[in-house]
Amino acid sequence: MNHFISMKQLSSETIIQLLDSATNLQESNFTISKQLFAANLFFETSTRTKMSFTVAEKKLGMEVLDFHAEASSMNKGESLYDTVKTFEAIGANVAIIRHEADNWMTELASNIAVPIINAGSGQAEHPTQCMLDLLTIYQEFGCIKGIKVVIVGDIKHSRVAKSNAIALEKLGAIVYLCAAPGYEDETLQYPYITIDEAVEICDVLMLLRIQHERHTNKHDTAGYLEAFGLTKQREKQMKDHAIILHPAPVNRGVEIDKDIVEYDRSRIFKQMANGVYMRMAILIHVLTEWGIIDDTIITER
Ligand code: NCD
Fold first, then answer.
1. Is residue 159 located within the same domain as residue 250?
2. What is the CATH number of the domain that holds 214?
3. For a substitution probing ligand 1, which of 97, 99, 126 has the most ligand atoms within 8 Å of its CB?
4. Distant-in-sequence, close-in-space partners of 65: CB < 8 Å, separation ≥ 6
């Protein structure tokens, strides 16, 4: 049985099934008729991911075990492993984990007997964010294959960029990268283009925040928007049908002009809304794979 850890582990068929399932969940209200506990274990800050998991769990009728790392026994030296083992012991049926280490799951994966969902692993992967990004693209264009996606920003430190590049390529999208000097990532083998080229060719412009918290030296953002960001002038060069994505939090006026966040072609708030249904679909998927639920206890409200 698999934990939901990396976009590398998902086949394109499974990804498409999950996208269809999320769309279904958006159209009708489904709930699980069995008492289940979801542990939301966030060791890094989060607004959207944590709250949309909470809404997804509640919509599915699950009990939410909230956790605040700063007020937990981790202050008494308890490890991540023992914290997760504790939640397993007290009856959590699924654990949603975000942690600053790239490989926090290595020790957990084979020793935890409930499904784990990766809600962000350092600068390595963010598969549930990737899935909701794919859902937004899929709903916009009806397909992913052949869509030109340019991922723009601090690629090196972004887990969103990594998960998306892997998945988009798997689904046949045409992936380009665009980064300021020092923000390129040598592990990703896609062509780099400039922001001026990006706005002209893209169907999807996926902007990223500068990940200051992962930098060893603080970078000054003065002049970043004009040199590397989406200004109003550049936005005018985009094709009529092209859309803007951003996982948020957005630093308005840094990677994107502050007004563009609310432009018609921005799907930034749509992404957040899609996050709830995508996470419902992922929860159902892992709970079903692990034999914790089956079709007979998922009922329409
Ligand atoms: C992203 C993250 O945490 O990786 N945000 C999110 O989950 N919506 C992106 C970011 O922090 O810039």
1. yes
2. 3.40.50.1370
3. 126
4. 37, 38, 39, 40, 87, 92
Is the Cβ–Cβ distance between 4 and 60 less than 8 Å? no
Q: Are residues 97 and 146 in the same domain?
A: no
Same domain, 46 and 139: no
| Residue 218 scores a pLDDT above 90 | no
For residue 62, give both structure tokens: 């699950």
Tally the domains of the chain.
Answer: 2
Judge whether residue 143 has pLDDT over 90: yes
275 lines ligand 1 (CB under 6 A): no
Q: Show the domain range for 85.
A: 7-126+272-300
Q: Find out whether the beta carbon of 247 lies less than 6 Å from any atom of ligand 1.
A: yes
Question: Is the CB of 279 within 6 Å of ligand 1?
Answer: no
Answer yes or no: is pLDDT of 217 > 90.
Answer: no
Q: Does the model's pTM come out above 0.90?
A: yes
pLDDT digits (tens, 9 = 90+) for 37-89: 999 999 999 999 999 999 999 999 999 998 998 888 888 889 999 999 999 99
Residue to probe by mutation, ligand 1, list 151, 160, 215, 269, most atoms within 8 Å of CB:
160
Task: Based on the fold, state whether residues 115 and 132 are members of the same structural domain.
Answer: no
Q: Whose CA is nearest to atom 6 of ligand 1?
A: 247
The more confidently predicted of residues 111 and 219 is 111
Within 8 A by CB and 6+ apart from 9, the residues are 2
